[in-house]
Amino acid sequence: MENSSMKDQVAVITGAASGLGLAISKKLASEGVKLALLDIADKIPTEFEHSSSIKYYKSDVTKEEDVKNIIQAIHTDFGRIDILVNSAGITGKTNTKSHLTETDNLSKVFEINFMGSYFTSKYVLPYMLDQQYGRILHIASIAGKEGNAGMLAYSASKAAVIGMTKVQGKEYAENGITVNALAPAVIQTAMVDAMPDEQVKYMTDKIPMKRCGTLEEAANLVAYIVSPTNSFTTGFTFDLSGGRATY
């Protein structure tokens, strides 16, 4: 699907230095979107080093004041913000039953996966309201809809992201702003590669296609969700599950 009307729009992407965030950044850049890339990594991905329409902001999305200041800086640098994609996330410790989980680990997962998405959307939304246009996409997970055994922190944090998506979608539906979520099953990323084999097998075995999704498949769907073409869907969770979720 052509999304050429996104040309020269400005997108803020968190977790942009690797994995899904990087794949989304490449896809939107190919559509002519100007990018503000946020990540805790020290420097911009090499693919974007020499692009005049892409700026990199080293950031920790769990620090509210830092997020506020960076969003303000992005608006000053680019003059507008049209798109926000919250891709920063961690799984935390997995393959662990609930009574054996560590409170500190659970808190860290929530801080990045939920609070990070809350902070960025909180400070982007006023700019979108001023222009009466915006597209926000929170990256959630099928684990947030169905729950994955051994992944309490991750599943619960992504369920919270889905809940926030439903609320925000309703709150800004009359302001030209859509807020949606994407719920992938297992996408082949470094984050997945770092998980225990038993945990990955548990998740992949639930997918009727019996494979992981690809970064390209995810990025293509994201490009549609955040485009002007997608104008009548909000508060919705798009599945990318190879048949696992059918509701």
Give a brief description.
With 247 residues, the protein is of the alpha/beta class. It has a single domain (4-231), classed as NAD(P)-binding Rossmann-like Domain (Rossmann fold), CATH 3.40.50.720. It contains eight helices and seven strands; from the N terminus they run E-H-E-E-H-E-H-E-H-H-E-H-H-H-E.
What does this structure look like?
- The longest helix is centred in the middle third of the chain and has 29 residues, at 103-131.
- This protein starts with 9 loop residues before the first strand and ends in a 7-residue tail after the last strand.
- The chain has a 7-stranded parallel beta sheet with strand order 3-2-1-4-5-6-7, with helices on both faces.
- The model has no long low-confidence stretch (mean pLDDT 93).
- The chain has 247 residues and is of the alpha/beta class.
- 42% of the residues lie in helices and 15% in strands.
- It has a single domain, classed as 3-Layer(aba) Sandwich (Rossmann fold), CATH 3.40.50.
- Helix 1 crosses helix 8, helix 2 (64-78) packs parallel to helix 3 (103-131) and helix 3 (103-131) runs parallel beside helix 5.
- The chain has 8 helices and 7 strands.
